[in-house]
């Protein structure tokens, strides 16, 4: 159960409410976010929702049978809108485009990508400064200095920064220079990281785990939300299957399913989803038709020279065409009465 | 290696050619299809293609390093067009729509579906009369009499019939009443069935195996082609993964990959691909954007009363809208310079 | 529900019984096997088992809630014993060893394997004469003549023959020369083949599908049983997963699970299960400890020269040692009070 | 390449050596562990190993083509032995038994488990005080106070502590009370955690990722080793597949494969591997026969009352029997000449 509390609820009213819920056998977790205060009740017994609903200090009460609660559409039907400032949004009914290199490499590289994005009306840039690498001997990113460099260039041009956070200690140092913290596919169930991101007042984009279920992705989002942060975005980026003709198996089924279960916006990453440059545009457009609220893809001036992921990275000409096609496809999708 | 033979090659020329190829260590399989005669050479050593190419009786010679040969784009760049007669095609550059119930149930049901298809300009109807069922106690279909009934109604209206063949003995009895033999996901590697379908002069649509790789699907098509039948269609219908929120995981990555590897047309089945009625349209349109040459989906007047697969079956109103959206999406896709 | 009928039930009694079961909303399938006559009732409603149990002509009645019925342990607690004659059995409480080459290649090869088996007290020989191959250009086996040759040599030495049947038309021609029909992993859901094997009075060993679930394997066995043949053996041979360091992922979990759900004997195939010769013995012994009633593995005089699967085939010295270790491990397992 | 350095190598000699290796196009990582100093060279070109081998200050040089280097058997053939003190080891040729509850719950519970282990000669106890939970509302463990409580009781009885570390900040606080840091299946690719564990002089047991490959597990171990810690143990605990009849699919193939690729000891966790109490013993013994150097399983006085994982936890009577069977099975395995 989710109980939304009134802002002016007294401590005494809250204590009385918690006691009553405990008495029907529900364990209570208090959640305080940027947008509201909630009591989350976990239990299995049936109870009389009206009886509790009449208590003082309550704005609303909902029964949510899913394992995840606060990210469920069952209590919050209205889609969550992520406002990044300067008129940049990620939200249902809109089409966010996020593009940029796999790794931040140099000032020159950043400048070129930023120019490319500006020319094509793209307002959000992706890029990694902390790189999770399977091998300890591989390039691990430019680190916090790379992020500062990037920030100075991007901010001047009104470009928002989307970048991966790998561990708790990075959250604070990254904070001034980051618009969206990305949780990578290997950290989707790094619960300590999720807990800490709940304490931050910036948007968090959670990528689906390498072999994560849709349910687990929603549970991971629940961690951040219940930690206090409602600014959440979900990202489908392909799952691990037996098929090796593609890097991952982009599971576009997840898009309408996530949209039906949760009020959070859903983004598709076709670059990791297929891992083959010449097919990234098709899969991006497929993602749009599947119902995505945004597309995140990799672009670099000279993909062959990228420090990482060059094989799935678009050059600027391809990127420009794709951004155009994404917008046209989305415009058409809006004319259909899809769910 | 694939050697295309001239029609007027003499037996002596052919024998000399085979001998020469054998001498360089290649094993020869002779293939005779509706469209041509071929020698398929299997071996690993390097050889001088010009030397063999100069022999008499040869139209052309190609090196194909893939495990599959005749279905590869490496020797036949031009896409294969499946001509079903009466102006009905499945081919690259076109958008085939195939719709109909999971199971053929009754004359009345057939008539209603046929009318629905006619009204919406859909020229191909799917439906099962032989049903592969996991449980021996489930409904196994109306059998050959159902097919004859269906044929009489559909043919009168110019509707082509797409239906599953489960075993060798059915091929002949189904022949007069079938336009496209469908090989189901459980039979993709039923090699005897594939061999026998190679001897038939009707189109064959091969569904990807339940956990089949893209490579295996192409190898299965190679069986039919090398058996003598070039009229082949490939179908992505979802694969088995750990995810249970959907019936299967529709692998749309397979679409551009198959199109890049083979000259055969590729169809997408969103009904089995996601298994949830309200999301079938999104996945169909995603399939179009991924590059499919056609969409096959399930429709029934009253899906809730369908003998099988009702949960993933569209009603006629949904089907009519979807057919329209598929055509619009395809028209837009054609304006993009996608691969 | 499973109703076991008395042998002397009259047609009238049976008709009355079927009518009564139909009236409670259950659909009846009549099953007649080598060992008994059954009525299988499929339905969902609760009913009074005693009321039906009192009807005349009934030996026993059981409620079986699994999707599979006749292969379930819920009605037949006593393990099924497969008697191949001449004192050769596959059964719970015993350890069957089946060894032999992947493919039957020649008279000389057969003689050498047969001698090796005799010397090591192994009474069952595996080998393929019809080979399912992913590529149409690969060796497809010696066919029925190879089987006859093999039969003549093996029978003289008291060795039983285990060999794969690929299609319905082979069942009859193989019959005189076969002791156990093997259904391969690509045919586990070839339902027509399973139906026809139900009509035969010889043992059938069903391999788990390439990505088949435990439930599906039991359903496939149900096909054969409900077709009339109770002589069934289940075989775990590895499943397809994302892991590529081994050919398949041998799922030994399946052994105790299958044994707990079904009364049928369970065999493990470590050769296909791991696909790496030097590790086949470990996995065979692991299979014994997991609870297998038998082990089937590949052996050849010179594995490197085998027509197929050489990389996972033991030479005779390795095979002799393994057979000894299997017996010792099984003897120890019997001293443990495992389930 | 791996270059083992002499202890008395001079800075000048090392600089010269690094320069020479850089000149042939290899990137150098310096590694300093408890046991030695190494230079790891990453590159692809062929080079003259003798020429570099002649340089001063080198103990030995090895070419290792695997992606992982220091954990490979290619340079260190002798198996790694983990010495926990007081005569407790995890090593090849020995059989480690680690048992205990999923979660540490109370002083009373700890005392009972410790007594049970002592009575059965088990020297290592598992238990979680920091619990990774899919849902933020589930029990997350007793934390560091639970660990201290446990330590006081266990240490007095000579029992070693194996417990999960979830994040970097816990490493230091856990240090005085922990014998083996366990890296859980959700953290196998938490590279920051692995890096930091490289700086610790205590053993680390890395569980295979939920859908991790064998190669990835070795790469994760490479992180810790290259960070400075050679005291590593690998653990197979089941992988995620499509099969749902068991909690995970215990991949015992991984045991001989890991043992053949790496010098590190390999442990099997049958409790998580199958997730069903009555089948844990069979899978444990199967793990022994597959070649494991140890078994880790869950036990609790009253499994039904355990805070977590009760369904896969043995009671003490089952645990006592299993420990005995494990030892007997291992004693028999040693008599076989397995790889």
Automatic annotation (TrEMBL), chains A, B, C, D:
The biological processes this protein is annotated with in GO are: aromatic amino acid family biosynthetic process
- Enumerate the spans annotated as DAHP synthetase I/KDSA domain: 91-331
User: Annotated Gene Ontology MF terms?
Assistant: aldehyde-lyase activity; transferase activity
Keywords (A to Z) from UniProt:
Transferase
What Pfam families does the record point to?
DAHP_synth_1
User: Matching InterPro entries, A to Z?
Assistant: Aldolase_TIM, Class-I_DAHP_synthase, DAHP1/KDSA, DAHP_syn_2
NCBIfam families from the entry?
DAHP_synth_Bsub, PRK08673.1, PRK12595.1
Q: What is this protein called?
A: 3-deoxy-D-arabinoheptulosonate-7-phosphate synthase
Q: Which organism is it from?
A: Cecembia calidifontis
Q: What is the lineage of its organism?
A: Bacteria, Pseudomonadati, Bacteroidota, Cytophagia, Cytophagales
